Amino acid sequence: MNATLIQLAASAALVALMIAVAGWARIARPFAPLDEAAARTLLAGEFPGRIPDRVWIAGDGAGAVARSGEDALVVYRLGDSWVARSMPWRLAMVAPVRRGRVLLKLRDPAAPMARLAVSGVNPWPPETPAEALAA
Amino acid sequence: MTLDPITPAFSPVDWAVPVFVVTIVLEILLARFRKARAVYEVRDTATSLGMGLGSQIAGLLTAGVVLAATLWVYEHRLFTLPMTAWWAWVAVFFLEDLTYYWFHRLSHERRFWWAAHVNHHTSQHYNLSTALRQTWTGGIAGTWLLWLPLIFLGFPPAMVAIQKGISLVYQYWIHTEAIKKLPRWFEAVFNTPSHHRVHHARNPRYLDANYAGILIIWDRMFGSYIPETDEEPCRYGVVHNLGDFNIFRVAFHEWMAIGKDLAGSRSPREVVGYLFGPPGWSPDGSRDTSATLKAKWRAREAAMPTPAPEQIAAE
Ligand SMILES: [Zn+2]
Ligand SMILES: [Zn+2]
Asked: What's the sign of the alpha-carbon dihedral B30, B35, B36, B40?
């Protein structure tokens, strides 16, 4: 048992060393905030065959929500990569905004919640309920 | 020479640990100084290495049961295969690798075992640290049972354990983008970085392919081989990527999703489908499986206008 514990402690120390080296190297993918064109390219890759009507971009460019029929197509940044899910558009429209972020419940244990930055230029929800009803 | 048939004379994985550390640091340094291709994101790396460390601990929890079952089967073995004969090592090399192929294929094609294996595929990166993103729930999923037929045949448990270790160490170095393609004869016979990149890709074209451990020949034999093509670079991860770097989410998210589905199921058929259907199975077919994703991809490819022969000739 003692030998196992020593082995685990040594492994943990080596893991810490490797993480430190990975952090120091700064070799992650470069990040550029999304604009509409970049968001559309990203959405096309994540939701092939779906044509989004309009795209809402998060205030910090680290996420986007697009409407496609009855669905909201959601993408958000994780580290140097992206996470994508869809959810009912009507639920996205009523998602709460807390501390400058809209909280989108994705109903998936693998990705429970997207938290996208809302700014004055890009308020949430992106259209008024009247507009949504008319669409 | 005598070798203990029960306790392995050495553990290939333990011996390889210093090699893991040195090569990961080396891969990072080569990428840092632009000598090789590798992408590391620090939190992703921490999650992968944390999963590796955690799997060592999780393995201890089921080790007793696995050992007891193995010893019981070995007591009731058909033959006694000598650990000192070269031909027995050749035989265990091929048979263990064949077992690994079917274990790995089952782990992708049936959700219950996918739940234990998916974590290995949750990184959106492909580097040496990804290799150490190992399962915590493999012992519970019971896939170790698949190796018991070898013990029943009469291969000593220590021999099988050493061969399993060799296979795991072999599969470590292929988790890299630094090596593009190896000589043709090697790519034809062995699992390589190129073949295993395809296995980690989420592009519909590449889904459910290249289950090989050491030898790629099994994929070629059983129809699951897909080569990597330059036209379509691999995009790594799972079809629905994880929402954060939480290590417990990596380890347990698919089990949680199964639990949620079972809680909402309305018939024995749904229970069986959610547990043992292909990942993505749903009663009304509203979710995507690998098969439907591939079919949709093929339909999109077929619908793409292909340039006429004269156009190609003119270019
Ligand atoms: Zn796999
Ligand atoms: Zn792998």
From this structure: positive
Strand bridging mode A63-68 / A71-78: antiparallel
* Residue length of chain A: 135
3-class DSSP state of A114? strand
Inter-helix orientation angle A2-25/B42-75, to 10°:
150
Read off the pLDDT of residues A48-93 as tens digits, 9 standing for 90 and up. 989 898 899 999 999 999 999 999 999 999 999 999 999 999 999 9
How do residues B167-213 score in pLDDT, each as one tens digit?
999 999 999 999 999 999 999 999 999 999 999 999 999 999 999 99
Q: Tell me which DSSP letter residue A8 carries.
A: H
Question: What residues of chain B, 26 to 85, have a C-beta less than 8 Å from chain A?
Answer: 28-29, 31-32, 38-46, 49-50, 52-53, 56-57, 60
Chain A nearest-CA distance from B85, in A, is 32
Q: Identify the three-state secondary structure at position B282.
A: coil
Up-side HSE of residue B13: CA atoms within 13 Å toward CB?
19
Cβ neighbors of B107 (< 8 A, separation 6 or more) are: B113, B114, B116, B117, B143
pTM for this predicted structure: 0.94
What is the edge-to-edge ordering of all strands in the sheet holding A113-117?
Answer: A97-98, A101-105, A113-117
